[in-house]
Amino acid sequence: MGPDGIHPRVMREQADELAKQLSIIYQLSWLTGEVPDDSKLASVTPIHKKGGKEDPGNYRPVSLTSIPSKVMEQFILSGIMQHVQDGQGLRPSQHGFRRGRSHLTNLVSFYHQLTHLVDAGRALDVVYLDFSKAFDTVSHSILLEKLQPMAWTGALFAELGTGWMAEPREWW
């Protein structure tokens, strides 16, 4: 359960009654750019990653938000992903976070390019980097800068930048 204390089963069982009210809230939020303050609350729980459990650096925070907030996030995500799937947001070489692609397809593509260059007798340099910690945090300002050209310039986009992501409130 999130900070609202409502169990997901209650939401599922009452979906027919709640759908109309939630759709009104979502539409008003989209049109006005205002996200209800309760939607910004999260119960933060530390999850052990690896290493010794006594080291706080070996934990990552997981934010549990309310079910209605997650539903709204899914609507926004589906809109962004539709835009990306239409080929307007990512280069063809992008493998991460794309349907049907993964680190394995990236490795196969890299191997193919590498063997092609070697077969052609071309000079080749390879640099290996460890990005294991690089994706633990995302710069919200950079993310919003990348989303801005994607027609997300309306009121809700402004709220994403000034409210939801810029001032996350957490409930412990």
Automatic annotation (TrEMBL):
<protein>
    <recommendedName>
        <fullName>Reverse transcriptase domain-containing protein</fullName>
    </recommendedName>
</protein>
<dbReference type="Pfam" id="PF00078">
    <property type="entry name" value="RVT_1"/>
</dbReference>
<feature type="domain" description="Reverse transcriptase">
    <location>
        <begin position="47"/>
        <end position="150"/>
    </location>
</feature>
<dbReference type="InterPro" id="IPR043502">
    <property type="entry name" value="DNA/RNA_pol_sf"/>
</dbReference>
<dbReference type="InterPro" id="IPR000477">
    <property type="entry name" value="RT_dom"/>
</dbReference>
